[in-house]
Amino acid sequence: MAHLKLGEILIKQGLINDEQLKKAIEFQKKGKGRIGEILIKLGYITEENMAAALSTQFGIPYYSSENAELLIPRNDQDLEKLVPGDFAKKNNILPLSKHLNTLTCAVIDPLDLLMLDNIKRITGCDVNLVIAIPSLLQKEINEFYVKDSKTDGKSSLLDQAVEKSYTHEQNEEHFVQLTQDESSTAELSLDRLIEKAGEAPVIKLVDLIIRQAIDERASDIHIEPFNNKIHLRYRIDGNLYNIPPPAPHLHLPIISRIKILAKLDIAEKRLPQDGSISAKLEDRTVDIRISTIPTLWGEKVVLRILDRSAVPLELSSLGFDTNQISQLRKTLSSPHGLFFVTGPTGSGKSTTLYAALNETIDPRKNILTVEDPIEYKIEGINQVAIKPEIGLTFSTVLKAFLRQDPNVIMVGEVRDLDTASICVRAALTGHFVLTTLHTNDAASAVTRLIDIGIPHYLLTPSLIMVMAQRLARRLCQKCKEPYEPNPEQHGGIKFKSDLIFRAKGCEDCNNTGYKGRIVVAEILEVTDEIRKLIFNSADNADIKNLARKNGMSTIFETGIKLIDKGLTSYEEICRVSVE
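The chain above was modelled as a monomer; its predicted structure follows.
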């Protein structure tokens, strides 16, 4: 079949018919574009279909999501220096490995002869090609190459500091042997370790790692030790991206520097530790939560960045539509009752809870929170962090709260029957309680509470609203690509708009096609009809059906509205709706 044209291969594979191919050829005659790209835009085939057909046409392998692990470049061949990042991003090419004088590269289009000629000229190598689907290839290119910072050259400063860390590696060999040998703990000099952690290059490197993460809008920094190397990764908009790491010999000084800043025990490497740092950045203060764990090759540290200025704690700034904000504000003005925000880990529950809490702030109200840990410090609110090691648990603090004359109580999370019972009791005795729960949708929260032991006759009068949510990535507004939706391509869904948008990728969004995130929520108001179902121990399907009959939009239905507004993509809503 290698001699067949792409369209003929797709017909033989049963992916398109003659009529669809003719239509694509007509589109091709009207403008520019390859036949495969046009078939994708028309919704007749997927990216993976095209990659598989090209693989058949040219007899070269292709990589998809099923074998994506093969699309990771070797990290010991300086491939990022052999193929410059700008060239790779512009031409959608990713170097995977080099053997003798042959360079294996992943590409989207093996027919781009000009690009192949350029890569041969740049590298001086023969080129062996494999095909990858565009979205996967762009993701891997983005992770392999670091985005150049656009703010004050801070990224280049980090790159320079990382490069210098390798030039000094030989001078530190003796220190590494002493500190990384687990069998010679007695030889480890804490004074020497503290001295190294306090040296100017280490201080500068840690500062630049944190500074660039904040500039890149990262929520977390992962510093992970492996055999003779360090992995440095930032989590941006929910996804982890690789950043060029410092030299391996700096792992212990970096970890020690972070521990010193967080007031942790630098001598303790066998047990997990938690701490926090406050970093001043221009005119604002950023809180950073530190967590360390012992791994096979040393301590891994994760820094959670809590930048209030990056996430305005206001309902209108999180992505809720006008109707949802009205529903929430009506509920938040209630003098008493129980309000739950539900969703999986990382779905933005805490941020929504803080934004909701902001709506209740009033000098005439006494507002108390119990959290694990305190993520954002809010003026005018009494916040308590639990400390289970001394007996300061959620339930202990809540019992004390009830004697503190509260109006509003926020509980970080309901984890057990004791905490849930006190929340219900507080709501029944004239207090407004906001808290979170781990469930997939709003209706499931009701059955979850009953399952853990809350009697339905107590839940019925106390519960006033449940909101389930996810975080979807926002389309980059500079490069989002319009296209005409095809019901066959989108499961029969008909959109209100004639054109919807999908991710493309540009320098501004680091070639991901997305920048920032938006809340996708379903809000279940507990009406008298819903209360009857709860009292009669109805299952969550009955509760959900009645709520939808009363006007509730599910997470997926809310997502479709966001797609119509051009805020996110169909693929992103499908991804978050099944979490």
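The CA atoms of residues 155 and 345 lie 30 Å apart.
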